[in-house]
Give the backbone structure.
Amino acid sequence: MMNLSPEQCEIIFSKRKSYAVEVKDGKVILRLPYYSGMRKAHELLQKHHNWIEQKILEQNIKKAENPPVTIESGKYFPLFDALYVIKEGTKLEFNNAFYITPGGDAADKLRQLYRQTAKSILGLKLAEKAKQCDIVYSGMKISNAKTRWGSCSYKKSINLNWRLLLLPERLADYIIAHELAHIREMNHSRAFYMELERISPEWRRAERELRQYSLNLDNWE
């Protein structure tokens, strides 16, 4: 049994009114209201000790089964259903290969390259699907969200996660259709699913397949 103390945790104080315990990459994060003290941090650790211990164990096992990938020239990485090699170049660009500039953090550079590539590829897909379905959106942004593949705001602006490029193309297309359906129906009501059915008849199959994937696809270092 591990011994946990607040000193071993990341403690985040904010205007929140509730308390939260999170385990991320084997590290314990405590989220507390400003008025809380270290005594409350101790209480949370004691109360949730078994859950924290189980989460750390699960994450360590998962990390051992899926060790981080080192980014270097000659390795192949996906863009939808194809694989492209990493090459060293004078600037970050994708041109039938991932060109990474030398020096610095290669993993961060590859993420940056995916993100700038996503802007053009996903932007074109979104525009084509919206025109096909006669749906008007106000704008698009490429996100780096850790919990969502995509989202749609009440101002009819769509956010698409750059990690969609790491999925099979049919699943990226489904996410785009899902967010476009939200332009007309902002909730997940029956009306929303009727709209989704209209623009993406295979949505049920895509939703099942998507559950096999985690947003932690860029397991690079």
